[in-house]
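Below is how a single chain appears once it has passed through the pipeline. First comes the sequence as given, then the structure the pipeline wrote out for it. We keep one example in the README because the format questions we get most often are answered faster by looking than by reading.
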Amino acid sequence: AADAELKRRAAAAAESAAAEARRIESTRDQLDAREADLSAREEAAGVAHREIGERSAALDARARTLDERQSELEVERTTMTESTRGLRSDLQQLDERLASGAAEAERAADAAPERVE
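Resulting structure:
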């Protein structure tokens, strides 16, 4: 009877140990799955980080290009402004010469004897 009790207790202990081993194995499987999920997420985050870095570099390059173009346009605007000032000055001088020439022609016409036909 004592031997049967020992066998029953041993069987119960073995069953309990087997159940605990199954729980441990299940927990281990869950941890492995979580670790695989975290690894996949880390890899995806790394890819996203690289893509963001590439996009940022592309945007920086585009911003530099736009800054350079803006500088070129400012130089062109300054050149055109100076050219316009020069043209206005030339036009003013031509207007003054024209007015002076017209006044001179009028004086010459006034001073000339009238022609009789």
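The two ends are 168 Å apart (CA to CA).

See the next section for the split statistics.
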